[in-house]
Structures are given as structure tokens and as C-alpha cells.
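dumping the sequnces here before i forget
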Amino acid sequence: MIEKSPRLVAIDGGAVVKEALRRIEQPSRRLFLQRSLTLGGLSLLTGCAIVDEDSVENALMKVSRFNDKVQGWLFDPKLLAPTYPEAMITRPFPFNAYYGEDEIREVDAHSYRLEVTGMVADRHAWTLPELRALQQTDQVTRHICVEGWSAIGKWGGVSFASFLSRVGADTSAKYVGFKCADDYYTSIDMPTALHPQTLLALSYDGQPLPPRYGFPMKLRMPTKLGYKNPKHIQAIFVTNTYPGGYWEDQGYNWFGGG
Amino acid sequence: MISDLGDSMTDDTRPVHPAWLRATHWLNALAVVILAMSGWRIYNAAPFFDFTIPGAITLGGWLGGAIQWHFAAMWLLAANGLAYLLCNAGTGRLFSQFFPLSPRAIVADLLAALRGRLSHADLRRYNAVQRAAYLFVMLDAVLLVLSGLVLWKSVQFPLLRELLGGYETARRVHFFAMAALVAFVMVHLAMVALVPRTLLAMIRGR
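..and the predicted 3d for all of it:
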């Protein structure tokens, strides 16, 4: 953004500053601008004297929304992600979050309640023993990070499709949103929520899910990138209103699926 | 350019490169530059070799921005590449310009080029090295698109994923195919610098 300002000075200094101040008040926007697109090279390529950074940003966001649609259309709800023998599990499985390992949240197991709201029939809050009493299944699948690396892990828990059916979720709704104890939030499309490999994961490698992997419960989807798999989930809501997500609001693709 | 006397009139008025070829060439160049520069930034997020790409020559500013550029330019590459291949095959140019091609002819033309004896009098005809290089880069671009599809949608293209050796192998395939494309571009640009007429021909057709 700062690189761009000399070009704008000639227009109206005061208005530009005012506009800039208004814009940087939005934290996600500030972050986006801090990491802003380097347009110098591209403006040389296109031969444009002035590239309006906002319009480029908007155009890229529009393409990203278009890519969401294409991915929704490509998504085959019956197609399974590959599974692996336990011998192939990556040890140690990497820790990853938007914060460092020294900031991992500790969630108290006894006071933990999972809120379920929105377009569902049963809105009661779930305790951990209640979740653990549901039928459990496990899978060894590949976790793929948006950064490119991948690791194989073993997650166990409750089929999310069966959980949604148990709480009487309106599965014609567009989105399922998640709010987490580490202030993370994200949302997914309903077809992925109902995918047979989508799990409310309560265990990792046969042990209760450790804090580093999202105690007491995370959503595990081998059909989506890592940032779509929220940890320490406290609230689940079914909605038709686009809920966005922590990274998605900063520019990561919303569908984010494999 | 002044026309050569003695050749048939039609040859003089016909452009060296048809307009559709020039258009798809430059759109492809734009897509490749955006994809390579944003791809380097994506590689830097989790490099699988001991080096990273200098940030100054990458595009996107951060991983999310780079991915947005990459996943926008991929449509340009795919649509434009498809248009190029269809025009090329449909007009018969693919066959007439790139074939026949034999290893012996490639070696002979390569040696002639190294001795500075390869003729560029007729830009309409590709020599054997050009034929091989352009066919190679077409196939390399196809490999880039296919391996890119596996990285983007690894679950949705199981056959492709297994053919490319799984997700992690596909990452390497994508990287090396990029490296091959960049190597091609560097040689390509060096050749254009040696025979600048070719640049004019690709811009204005003559």
C-alpha cells in the first residue's frame, strides 16, 4: 500500500489519508495490506502506468469465489480420500496453527460444552462424555497443508454426518460454521460436512486428542486443506449465511478442498 | 520487411505467424510469468529443497496472495493453452510445422546451430531444434496442468494422482516441470536475443 502512495499524492492528499485510515481500521484488511501484493513486476508486464491495487485485489477475490463454485461442482461426495497403513503415519505429526506451540490453548475437559446452534432441531450443549459415548470410527489419512507439505495421521471420532443427523440439522443449509477455543473460526460447505470421511475427531493415534492437535475435539476432513480443519471446537452452527473464516477472510480460498 | 524477390506472392503477404498464434503466445507468456512467480512464493512456504526463491522475484506478497494469483492465472493458462492446441491441430499447423522430426535431424541442426551455421532466412519454417523444443514445452505445460490438478484437487482426480505417484510425488513433478519450463524460457529468450527478427515476427506477424 505504501508503495502505491506516491502515485496518489497528486489526486487529493487529505482524502487519501482519510480513506487509508478508514481502511486500516479493519484488522484483517490491515494484515492483508501488510502482506500486500507486489504489483511492480506485474505493472511492468502489462505496461500499465497505474495499477489500481484495490481493483486487482477485488478481481482476485472474485476469481477465488469462482474457484469455490468450481470446486463445489467438482466435489464428488462419494469419492474417498486415500487411506494408509498405520506404519505410514508421520511421527512426530507436525503441530500447526496461526500461533506458536507455546500458545496452545488448554481446554478444561469437565467444563467443556459443545454448543450446537442454527438450523438444527436439538440445540442442547454436548459434554465430552456424551460425545465420547457416540459411535466412534477411525481413519489414517493424509493431512495436506495450504503451504504444500503433507503428513499422515490417525484420527478417531464421530462421523460428522451421523452427528448432524442426530442433532436434526437441516442438511439443505449451505454452510456449517465452527468457533474454537483458540479464537479460530472457519466454515465448510454442507456436502463436505456430510462426506463419509468427515469426523468430529476426539482422538489422535488411539489417544485422547492432545492439546497440540486440538483437545478436546477437532473437525477432521481428509478432503480439505489443513486450515479448514478447526481445532478446540466450542460451537457448531448450521446456517445459510456465509460465515467466512480466520484465514479465508484474509484471502485463503474458502472451499480449500482437495 | 522487404519481401524476397522470386518467391511466390502468397508467401510474401502471408504473416510468419497467424494472428491467433501471436495472441495465444503472448497470453501464454503472461500466464507463465504470473504462475512461475506466484508458484515460487508458494514453494517458499514449504520448500522441499535446501533453497528458497528470493522474495523479490516472487508474486503475491504472502502465501494467500500468491495462491490467489496462481489460481487465477491457471485459468488463463488452461483456456489459452486449449485454444492454442485446438487452433494448432485444427488448422493442420501442428502437423506441418512440427513434423517430420527425427533425432538425427535434431542433432544435425543442434551442431549447425552451435557452429553458427543454422539458417534463419525463413522464419516460417522451424528447424529441428525448434520443433523439438516447442513440442517439449507443449508437453511440459500439459504435465504442469495435470500435476497442478493433483495438487489442487488431490481427492477428486484419483487416477491422475496415482499416475503421478501420489500427492507428494506430484509436488516434485510440478516443481521439476516448472524448472524445465523456466529453462526453456531462458534458452528461448537467448535465441530471440540472437535473432531479434523473430521477436518482431511474433509481435506484428512479419
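Residues 1-10 of chain B have pLDDT under 50 and may be disordered.
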